[in-house]
Design goal:
Oligomer: heterodimer
Low-confidence stretches of chain A: none
Structural class of chain B: mainly beta
Order of helices and strands of chain A: EEEEEEEEEEE
Shape of chain B: globular
Number of helices of chain B: 0
Strand content of chain A: over 45%
Low-confidence stretches of chain B: none
Shape of chain A: globular
Mean pLDDT of chain A: 94
Order of helices and strands of chain B: EEEEEEEEEEE
Distance between the termini of chain B: 38 Å
Chain lengths: 111, 113
């Protein structure tokens, strides 16, 4: 069974803080993704990575950066959190035949 | 411009009924199609892939209509546990999601006792 884990289920941060969201997968997948999900807007792709040290911008990369130093780990960084980054953040890794495996999500609140 | 479009619902359906919903996509070159299920406050999980010939998994049937550019999901003998949001996912969208995989916003299904 594929497992994707995320470091926190719930997180509360203050405006201007640096925020790290960690994601780990155990299936040796090359492709990993970060999405945010907001009511009425659906899932939106922030960044993705095809391999270690490689990253590609998604549809809404502004205000975010990522790091992939090891194949199993993909981190999302909010350099200076803002209230409009309050959201559910979902990490995913992609297996065979384009199947996406999602982590449980991190519900981030920025005050 | 909507690349993958779904009726958001909610669809309120009595237990035991059959329910069907569609998802339309804009790019005829799209290659692969999926239905995901997302329970409230949980992550999406793959329900089934959609093959050209259509496919069935128990009470669930998925179909692809390339000519009209839509996929459908049919649920027979619906159960209370089928209540969820169903996401349509399409790959191969030009101008869609940056990596080619585009998610619909989901159809909310409520099965009522």
């Amino acid at each position: 069974d594929v497992k994707v884990t995320q470091s926190s289920r719930y997180l509360v941060k203050r405006t201007g803080e640096k925020v790290f969201l960690e994601c780990v997968q155990d299936m040796d997948h090359e492709n990993m993704f970060w999405y945010r999900q907001d009511p009425g807007l659906g899932l939106r792709l922030i960044y993705f990575s095809y391999d270690v040290k490689m990253k590609e911008k998604g549809d809404i990369p502004e205000g975010y950066s990522v790091s992939r130093e090891k194949k199993e780990r993909f981190s999302l960084i909010l350099e200076s959190a803002s209230t409009n980054q309050t959201s559910m953040y979902l990490c995913a890794s992609r297996g065979r035949l384009d199947t996406q495996y999602f982590g449980p999500g991190t519900r981030l609140t920025v005050l | 411009r909507k690349e993958v479009e779904q009726d958001p619902g909610p669809f309120n359906v009595p237990e035991g009924a059959t329910v069907a919903f569609n998802c339309t996509y804009s790019n005829s070159a799209s290659q692969s199609f999926f239905w995901y299920r997302q329970d409230c406050r949980k992550e999406p999980k793959l329900l089934m892939s959609v093959y050209s010939s259509g496919n069935e998994d128990g009470r669930f049937t998925a179909q692809l209509n390339r000519a009209s550019q839509y996929i459908s999901l049919l649920i027979r003998d619906s159960k209370l546990s089928d209540s969820a949001t169903y996401l349509c996912v399409v790959n191969g969208q030009a101008g869609g999601g940056a990596d080619g995989l585009t998610f619909g916003k989901g159809t909310h299904l409520i099965i009522q006792p």
